[in-house]
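Known limitations

Files may contain more than one protein. Parsers should not assume a single record per file. Below, a two-record file is shown to illustrate correct handling: read the sequence, read the token line, then continue until end of file.
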Amino acid sequence: MKRLFTTGNSPFQFNLATLLLRIGFGALMIPSHGYAKLIHFSEKKDTFMNFMGLGSTFSLSLTIFAELFCSILIILGLFTRLATIPLIITVLVILGIHDWEIFGEHELVPAFLAGYLAILLLGPGKYSLDALIGSKYK
């Protein structure tokens, strides 16, 4: 019972938690967001939102880059903290489009924001390509 209320964790628990966060949030974004936009690019490119006057095609391309390619990087644990930044920006834009509504129809968006912020703060953990590359330069 005492273990249920402890606030500490072992390095294994920490690294396993970061791995689960990365795989979970990366894998949830890919199929219905990033990949779906990629395969329907030609249909969406003219009707997608024009973010900051960049044009709808370029805005869609940036969104696909974040939702698909940055999610893959997060799953792999490669350039993890850097890859979360475009995803955080994308999620903030989506929240802005939906009038910052954090409860209701789009409540998954703030959950993604919380997950990506946690990944940004925690880093990739030991079970990542970042850790493997970093260990070669120590």
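...continuing to the second record:
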Amino acid sequence: MRLPLVLLSALVLTACGEAAAPADPAPAPAPAVVLGGVDLGQPVRALGTEPFWGVTLSEEGLVYEGVDRPREVAPRGEVELVGTMAVISGETDKGRTLEITLIDTDCSDGMSDRLYPLTARVRIGEETLTGCAASVAAITSAGESGPVTEPAGA
């Protein structure tokens, strides 16, 4: 009788001493891609004049629009960082290639006294457009002149 009691005690002690298997660690968040002080994981706007156009990079995707131009939307692809440039591209809902190249160099839109932190080159179909870019937060909080910078606390 003593032997089964000893075995039962050993089993209970062994079960109590087993540690739960460690859970798989959560995947680390992807590091933010920052170019020219602009976090490309946040909404970013590229814009140009003559002709007036804009591309917004957001959770919705790459949204292209302009004066007398139809709105086109492409899924937002991965940001490819190449030195001081970032390239994001996709195919629009109209079947055209939309590629945005952001370059870490200051930019003037040529019509205002604003100075943007990024130069933008946008290829939509066969057309190539050149302009400037910054975060949407910086553009909406900037004044009519001077540098377009991230708002305090952003």
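Parsers that stop after the first record will miss the second one. For reference, the second record is described as follows. The first strand starts at residue 34 and ends at 35.
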